[in-house]
Design brief:
By secondary structure, the protein is mainly α. The chain has two domains: 242 residues, no CATH class; 238 residues, no CATH class. Helix content is 73%, strand content 0%. It is built from 23 helices and no strands. The protein is globular, with a radius of gyration of 25 Å.
């Protein structure tokens, strides 16, 4: 009964929150996207048997699926470690009530289990079990197969939460995971060590043995006990906060920027803001994954002659930092926006500082992605054209359209699965920036040639660089028109 009451209170807290109805449009859009993904997963679930039957003639589909399970487990654990938000709970009001500590801890640990997102992949697993596992084995085996996957989901959720609370999702953790996962894949590829074969043996035993489910069940209980131990030793908020790792202030030695005057000082402050806050840091870490985004497109035969999609990939990976930070370039300062308005900081100086910061992000991304030049001269030309278009067109679109994002952003919260500060305007800002150049390339390459399309976008970018002052003036005027609405919107989240 107590658990039901706690769930009701959490639900009331959600829909009574000030931002719930303001972000209702975003929630509806995300709901439609979830339905779209659910349909794709269902189709994949019913098609997976045929795909796996053609993939290998010696192993049946369930064995191939089991071979990938350890990779799914480790990949899911890594993804949750960085993207899963830690479940929070306003503990002090309940500590003065006659409620056992164990009840509150259990609620805090088990609440994420009720999230539908945890069970999204069951839309693939259940159809696959019905169509394939039942056909090759039996209904009972298919049931154990589904239960095994549910235990894996529970283990991942509990273990990721424990690791994140204990060690924190900092840079070193990110680098460790980035090295481990490709390392295992490389060992598998060069046949030095096969996690795939180990996975087949382990999960075949679990699913085919009548008592095999005891293994994942014990793993879930172990992860639960680790979380319970952590909470039991850090029950009181002040002690809990002192135990959380990864919240140390990052002091960046970037004082050399101060020699560039007020613009340099603002850039220095913006960099410190990025490095010292959880939400901006998590975006920074997660955006590093997009360095590998080009591998999806440049190695896929489906996109060899699809110049629109290839340019989309080139523009994205040569400017992912600019695009990730640029659409909220003003909102990052929402907590102290009133201070900015009252200081003797000219709007042009403020926007110029953000302009140079985004330019530097673009240059960094372009340099980091130069290894893609080995894919051929066509990719080189696309990257150069995308770089010019980003610094000459997209950067000004971001500065101009960012004035429409007037929702306060809490920088102390992680960005993963966090839509606070996001509205339908955020989606509308992305549309012209990401898809308009793709349509231009697709149209001009179809009518004339790829060279004409790339030269057109490059010249547009060059024109933006040449007329930079005029475009900055346009952004300054837009900022002045919107600054009081921005300030009002940022205050509403206080």
């Amino acid at each position: 009964m107590l658990t039901t009451d706690l769930l009701k209170q959490e639900w009331k807290k959600t829909y009574r929150a000030q931002g719930f109805y303001k972000n209702l449009a975003v929630s509806i859009l995300l709901g439609f996207f979830a339905l779209y993904m659910a349909a794709i997963f269902l189709i994949l679930g019913f098609s997976l048997n045929g795909i796996l039957e053609k993939a290998d003639s010696t192993l049946n589909p369930m064995q191939l699926f089991n071979g990938a399970m350890l990779y799914v487990l480790l990949g899911g654990l890594a993804l949750r470690f960085f993207m899963q938000q830690l479940n929070t709970f306003n503990l002090p009001p309940y500590q003065v009530l006659p409620i056992k500590r164990s009840k509150l801890m259990n609620f805090l640990m088990l609440k994420p289990m009720a999230s539908p997102i945890n069970y999204f992949l069951l839309l693939v697993v259940i159809p696959f079990a019905i169509k394939s596992v039942v056909g090759y084995y039996s209904i009972l085996t298919a049931l154990r197969f589904i239960l095994c996957f549910i235990f894996v989901v529970w283990f991942n959720s509990l273990m990721a939460a424990f690791l994140k609370r204990k060690f924190g999702a900092g840079l070193y953790s990110f680098l460790l995971i980035i090295l481990v996962m490709p390392g295992l894949a490389a060992l598998e590829y060069f046949k030095l060590f096969s996690l795939f074969k180990i996975s087949i043996v382990v999960f075949d035993f679990i699913i085919l043995n009548p008592f095999g489910l005891i293994v994942p069940m014990c793993a879930v209980i172990g992860a639960y006990l680790l979380n319970k131990w952590f909470f039991s030793t850090n029950f009181y908020p002040e002690k809990f906060n002192s135990k959380i790792k990864g919240d140390k202030t990052v002091a960046a030695d970037i004082s050399f920027l101060n020699r560039f005057g007020i613009i340099g000082e603002i850039i220095s402050l913006e960099i410190k803001l990025i490095l010292r806050h959880k939400r901006t840091k998590s975006i920074l870490y997660m955006s590093l994954i997009f360095v590998f985004y080009g591998l999806i497109f440049y190695t896929n035969k489906l996109y060899i002659n699809n110049y629109g999609m290839l340019f989309f990939a080139a523009m994205f990976i040569t400017g992912f930092l600019m695009l990730m930070f640029g659409q909220w370039v003003i909102s990052w300062d929402s907590s102290h926006f009133d201070t900015i308005l009252t200081k003797n900081i000219p709007v042009r100086t403020y926007l110029n500082a953000n302009y140079y910061l985004l330019i530097s992000f673009n240059i960094i991304c372009f340099v980091v992605t130069t290894p893609y030049f080995f894919f051929g001269m066509k990719i080189v030309y696309m990257h150069l054209a995308a770089f010019m278009f980003n610094i000459g067109v997209n950067i000004f679109l971001l500065l101009f359209l960012a004035t429409y994002n007037n929702r306060r952003i809490d920088l102390s919260k992680s960005s993963a699965m966090n839509y606070q500060g996001t509205t339908y305007k955020s989606f509308l800002i992305v549309l012209p920036i990401m898809f308009l150049p793709m349509i231009i390339v697709y149209s001009l390459s179809a009518l004339f040639s790829l060279a004409v399309a790339l030269w057109t976008l490059s010249l547009l970018g060059l024109a933006g660089v040449i007329f930079r002052n005029s475009l900055i003036t346009l952004c300054v005027n837009q900022f002045n028109r919107r600054k009081y609405k921005l300030a009002e919107g940022f205050r509403e989240g206080e």
